[in-house]
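Subject: design request, 949 residues
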């Protein structure tokens, strides 16, 4: 139509010839799937029209087993055709780092390569996200992931990490893969790593290593160059401790001195004579000829004559062979003289053993034994290093620095400073010396507080004027907003406004003396400001941001790197570990289910939106889940996936993960509310129309909920969660929604290197670490669906010094515990009003049923009275408000489980003792009130507690 003439046809030029027509909108993908069409003609469109109920045929297909018994139990007996199951898990599995990545072993202080975990599962340092604290954690599996493409991550502090693009790091908004991060994104790194070794070494050795790494040279001569009087004095003592002589030479055109460790010729000659005399005395004592001694030891007669006449001396290894040949020990052959008379001085032998001889300045690195030193000796090591190659400046910029031309040495020192809580920045400085270009690496510690911490924790010789100036400087009121900063979560200003009301700026100013501007949302603020806010508004939210062991470093670049062998560790419970001084995520497992389904039922289609098919196969090889009917595809478009289903007719479909899927009907980014809803709706229609069971993997947020809109859980038939527990290698699979079965069932798995393995006897696993005979510990039998589980209930009652005593619970409902405490106070007279009470169920199990009331009550009373429960018993019963103990259901199963684990008796409601309990081997004690239970379990004469079988 011509824009000038609105009623004229552009083709024929006629007027008033246009006819209005209604054009139907194109059906959405979900509508096409439900109704059928050219692309999806076999999806059963007839099922969408209303039909009389008498005409509807019921499928004869029964539930199908996953051949993972614990999984079947939670599903309600197996997989239902056409069901849509959502499994909450951690994102992706192709998360791994290269073999050169170094990881701190907190038990010994050693800095090991990740490949060392293949031989032994050493502990690692992991982050407890609830409080941002770092602590040691156990490793359950070492996971080689083959050769994969990698990226190089560089941060503002100069740290580097080579890993796969999908490897997650922690941001303020949760775990995100490094490939999705842009420059200036702040990520979590350790603020301190206070883990030291216990392998002490002679102080002289520690000082020697530090001198050689700084201004020292270890070649044909052992030399140190310095102009500091303190260093000169220390080198004199060091030479004496090492048993050598210190020679001092002037250095041309400078005031510095050369200090050389030598053994004078006269001393070496006297040492050779001493060895000669010792050899002659030993030969005479054993009545041997020189020829016989040579024959026995395997040396030539000529060599023996050289030693006999003092023209040379045997090495320590040769001396050992000589003495072993005649049944003696090396200590009998003047060991001090052997060392002193050799061509190599004792210092050279020591540096040879450490691999430090003939190193160039660019290849120097800290020997492994230094990382295992205790704190005091590590402090001495750093003090010598900084005294030789460090600087202190107190001008416009206040700081301490350390320079070297070895990047590896700089990274080693950066890590060691972190053990003292000193976060150093590593920067490069291109320079030219004598016409040759080279790169220096400088570590910087900036700011008055940081420098003062360095001087008090480590110290440095010399630099007296700068140190005096820094000591006189005032403490800055606020920290820099360009260095130690904290990124703000998206809800930060909402949280602060909830505490301050509409007068945010005025309230903050009155309480902290600071002026904040909400318009700065999205920009970080300094740690000092956050600490002031946490002190003024002491909520867990602000305290977690202000305190803890996390320093928020900044991404500088993420660049492609070459393919490499990559590896991962499985850290149960905390699901992360510190590698290359960055906090990274660890692996989870999912392929077992797909392998079983393909092997038993045929074609199973696994769709991954995060990983390549090569990565999935590597994991399947490790889990022994390879099968020709397991089909893999890396795809995110729901329309393409529906085409795969139409073409391949799979028996099962697995989507990993739903947050990465996109629907062509929605114009928004993956993972948004609209995309997740549309993709799930299309998959639900696909599952019902084709009667294909579909498993969706959903990312879990740091709060433990499945990411995405809440409607996602309403659209599926079953929702399963994997949960961690206190036992480091165990996982619990729980159903929180199940249209085809009970939500009371749970599955118990053990994480091993070969995958998730069902636990045959979970009760024994949960009680494995129970402290028998300890006050505050009881055992109860709880019903989880059709299964009886024995769990330990622990309680701790301690004097409170707070206005409102704490009531902390884990694994049991807080209101239920409050009810039990009220009954104990009212009916038994236990004074708990001014006591902190902590109640926990060990093993990660949540006890929902009231039959655990009696065990809770006796655990609390036992801790309060400081008396263990008598005998080897389990406790069952619901407590009423009048103090009565009410009966439990399925008592026979509970008692059978207790008897099977070797328990000898049970205290339970009197009404439960009857026909159902006649066949038990346990000694039963019936009670009617909680007072009777306390008298029988705690106040009766104590019997030695025997552990269960």
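Subject: RE: design request

Done. Sequence follows.
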């Amino acid at each position: 139509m011509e824009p000038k003439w609105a009623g004229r046809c552009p083709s024929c030029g006629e007027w008033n010839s246009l006819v209005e027509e209604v054009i139907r909108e194109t059906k959405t993908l979900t509508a096409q799937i439900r109704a059928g069409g050219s692309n999806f003609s076999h999806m059963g469109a007839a099922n969408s029209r209303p039909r009389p109920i008498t005409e509807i045929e019921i499928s004869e297909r029964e539930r199908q087993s996953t051949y993972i018994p614990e999984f079947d139990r939670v599903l309600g007996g197996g997989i239902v055709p056409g069901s849509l199951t959502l499994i909450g898990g951690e994102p992706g599995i192709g998360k791994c780092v290269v073999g050169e990545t170094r990881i701190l072993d907190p038990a010994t202080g050693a800095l090991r390569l990740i490949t060392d975990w293949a031989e032994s599962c050493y502990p690692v340092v992991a982050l407890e996200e609830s409080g941002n604290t770092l602590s040691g954690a156990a490793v359950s599996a070492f996971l080689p992931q083959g050769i994969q493409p990698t990226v190089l991550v560089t941060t503002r502090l100069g740290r580097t990490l080579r890993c796969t693009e999908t490897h997650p790091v922690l941001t303020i908004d949760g775990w995100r893969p490094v490939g999705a991060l842009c420059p200036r994104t702040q990520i979590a790194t350790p603020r301190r790593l206070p883990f030291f070794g216990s392998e002490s070494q002679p102080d002289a050795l520690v000082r020697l290593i530090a001198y050689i790494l700084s201004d020292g040279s270890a070649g044909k001569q052992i030399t140190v160059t310095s102009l500091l009087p303190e260093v000169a004095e220390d080198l004199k003592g060091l030479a004496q401790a090492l048993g050598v002589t210190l020679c001092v030479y002037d250095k041309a055109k400078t005031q510095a001195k050369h200090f050389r460790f030598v053994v004078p010729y006269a001393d070496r000659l006297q040492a050779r004579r001493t060895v000669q005399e010792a050899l002659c005395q030993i030969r005479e004592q054993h009545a041997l000829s020189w020829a016989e001694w040579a024959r026995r030891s395997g040396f030539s007669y000529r060599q023996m004559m050289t030693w006999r006449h003092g023209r040379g001396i045997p090495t320590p290894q040769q001396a050992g062979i000589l003495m072993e040949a005649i049944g003696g020990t090396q200590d009998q052959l003047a060991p001090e003289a052997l060392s002193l008379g050799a061509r190599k001085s004792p210092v050279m032998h020591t540096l040879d053993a450490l691999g430090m001889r003939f190193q160039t300045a660019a290849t120097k690195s800290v020997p492994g034994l230094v990382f295992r030193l205790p704190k005091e000796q590590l402090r001495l090591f750093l003090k010598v290093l900084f005294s030789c190659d460090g600087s202190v400046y107190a001008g416009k910029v206040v700081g301490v620095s350390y320079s070297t031309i070895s990047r590896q040495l700089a990274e080693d020192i950066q890590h060691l400073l972190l053990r003292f809580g000193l976060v150093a920045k590593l920067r490069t400085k291109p320079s030219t010396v004598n016409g040759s270009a080279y790169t220096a690496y400088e570590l910087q510690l900036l700011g008055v507080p940081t420098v003062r911490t360095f001087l008090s924790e480590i110290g440095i010789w010399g630099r007296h004027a700068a140190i005096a100036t820094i000591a006189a400087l005032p403490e800055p009121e606020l920290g820099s907003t360009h260095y130690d900063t904290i990124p703000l979560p998206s809800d930060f200003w909402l949280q602060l406004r909830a505490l301050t009301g509409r007068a945010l700026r005025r309230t903050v100013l009155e309480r902290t003396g600071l002026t904040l501007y909400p318009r700065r949302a999205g920009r970080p603020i300094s740690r000092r400001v956050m600490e002031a806010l946490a002190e003024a508004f002491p909520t867990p939210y602000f305290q977690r941001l202000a305190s803890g062991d996390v320093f928020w470093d900044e991404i500088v670049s993420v660049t492609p790197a070459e393919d490499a062998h990559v590896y991962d560790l499985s850290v149960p419970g905390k699901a992360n570990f510190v590698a290359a001084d960055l906090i990274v995520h660890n692996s989870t497992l999912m392929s077992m289910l797909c392998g079983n389904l393909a092997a038993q039922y045929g074609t199973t289609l696994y769709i991954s939106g995060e990983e390549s098919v090569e990565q999935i196969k590597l994991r399947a090889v490790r889990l022994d889940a390879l099968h020709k009917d397991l089909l893999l595809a890396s795809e995110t478009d729901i329309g393409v996936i529906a085409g795969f289903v139409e073409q391949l007719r799979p028996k099962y479909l697995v989507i990993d993960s739903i947050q990465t899927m996109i629907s062509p009907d929605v114009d928004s980014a993956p993972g948004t509310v609209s995309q997740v809803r549309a993709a799930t709706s299309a998959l639900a229609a696909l599952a019902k129309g084709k009667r294909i069971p579909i498993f969706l993997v959903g990312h879990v947020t740091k709060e433990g909920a499945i990411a995405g809109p809440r409607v996602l859980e309403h659209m599926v038939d079953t929702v399963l969660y994997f949960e961690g527990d206190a036992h480091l290698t165990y996982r619990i699979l729980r159903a929180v929604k199940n249209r085809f079965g009970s939500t009371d069932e749970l599955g118990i798995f053990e994480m091993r290197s070969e995958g998730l393995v069902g636990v045959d006897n979970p009760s024994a696993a949960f009680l494995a670490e129970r402290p028998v005979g300890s006050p505050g510990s009881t055992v109860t039998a709880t019903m989880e669906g059709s299964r009886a589980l024995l769990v330990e209930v622990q309680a701790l009652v301690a004097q409170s010094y707070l206005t409102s005593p704490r009531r902390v619970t884990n694994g049991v409902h807080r209101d239920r515990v409050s009810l039990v405490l009220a009954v104990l106070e009212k009916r038994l007279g236990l004074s708990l009003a001014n006591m902190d009470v902590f109640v926990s169920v060990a093993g990660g199990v949540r006890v929902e049923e009231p039959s655990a009331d009696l065990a809770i009550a006796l655990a609390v009373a036992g801790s309060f009275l400081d008396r263990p429960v008598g005998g080897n018993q389990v406790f069952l019963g619901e407590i009423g408000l009048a103090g009565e103990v009410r009966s439990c259901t399925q008592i026979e199963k509970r008692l059978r489980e207790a008897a099977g684990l070797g328990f000898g008796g049970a205290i339970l409601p009197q009404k439960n003792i009857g026909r159902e309990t006649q066949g038990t081997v346990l000694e039963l004690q019936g009670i009617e009130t909680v007072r009777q239970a306390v008298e029988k379990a705690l106040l009766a004469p104590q019997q030695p507690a025997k552990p269960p079988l």
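Confidence is low (pLDDT under 50) at residues 37-48, 90-94, 725-729, 944-949.
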